[in-house]
DNA sequence: GGATTGTATATTGTGTACAATATACAAAGA
DNA sequence: TCTTTGTATATTGTACACAATATACAATCC
């Protein structure tokens, strides 16, 4: 939460925004927790103004909810809201692989292969944080291949909202082998330009994630 | 741009947000135009703070772009950005009618019928503003029937970004007959639960809009 | 005892002053 | 004349002060 100086030079609101988002996604700030401006301002060593502007942005991203005259709190994820988001996300991920099949060029194929192999390498290790990043990189390579920036942006935003859970998902090493296989199958289908197969495989991939995350939510509720 | 008092009681930032968004969508604020805080503050009779917070929100909605230390300007729509958005929107609209086919209940069917008939009524008149609103209401009825609020929210946000053009589209009375027919076909398909037909018809509907809007953009550029 | 009202406190909402920076334009030098 | 540099001005970035409001808790009344 400290050392926001790492990217000094860009406006404080953006630094604060990134800092708070990170804190929410990693679970440092928990669902339902209140975001009090003065407190955050003191903690981050800035005034209330950039804090407020950062909160406005988090609100639009769906990570916090504002109650007028009461302030902001970290959005809590219900099973219903999660399935709603995943329903949309699945449709967009399918669109992404379909477009990738149609439009991917040579360089992008190389990049996709590279990211897939990097993921395979890391999947054997213990660093969940690195693995998560490699997973994002693989998916980003797909979005790049669609030629539609907006699409990638939207899916990333949706994916972000369940980032906290996906991290747990990746920590479970027993699933790594399956993940590697899924990536490989998605990759193969895109390279072959086989839209039907690619959309089928991405669906499997997303639905496995969904099942895992819902399990987590249910077990949390049981606490 | 004036009389923001209509919804006094909610925070000024939200009033300003709505006011500015409306101004952008109706074309009162034109693409590329700079949003200068002091100027807007004077014009709307508030201080810079709520203006700034409203601009932060508009930025996240994609209606304005921020340049650090230079300020905000109304986002301009290129043909490429438009087709990107429509590509995503089409996928989501298809998902919406598919889910509607599966989940619509009796009350929602009645509502959908009502909205369709209202649109047919108004399509004979001259009030483009009313017609546009009826069109939105029809589509909203579809989103309601999906049981997925998030989906409707996202599509509306995408649709909003081309609102300015759609208004021109609706002003062209020669297309009204076609619009009424398209709505009728979408409605019939949803009531029958015919997913294939519904997605086909919604695709036609969106692609007609796309063609019309692209025509407008090209003719504007020719000026 | 329970409900209600009043009051203190905490927190957000708004306005405003000052700092930092970018831009335009003029002046000076080659 | 062209380039460069300096300076004035406009504009955003940040901090802070005050106003408005919600919340909790105590005091009072029935």
Please give a structural write-up.
The structure is a homodimer of 223-residue chains. The first copy, chain A, is mostly helical and 223 residues long. Chain A has ten helices and three strands. The first copy, chain A, has helices at residues 12-25, 37-44, 48-61, 79-103, 106-123, 128-146, 149-160, 163-171, 176-192, 195-222, and strands at residues 34-35, 64-67, 71-74. Chain A has a three-stranded antiparallel beta sheet. The longest helix of chain A has 28 residues, at 195-222. The relative contact order of chain A is 0.12. Residues 1-8 of chain A have low confidence and may be disordered. The interface between A and B is medium-sized, with 27 and 27 residues. Chain A binds a DNA duplex (30 and 30 nucleotides) through residues 11-13, 36-38, 41, 46-50, 52, 68-71.
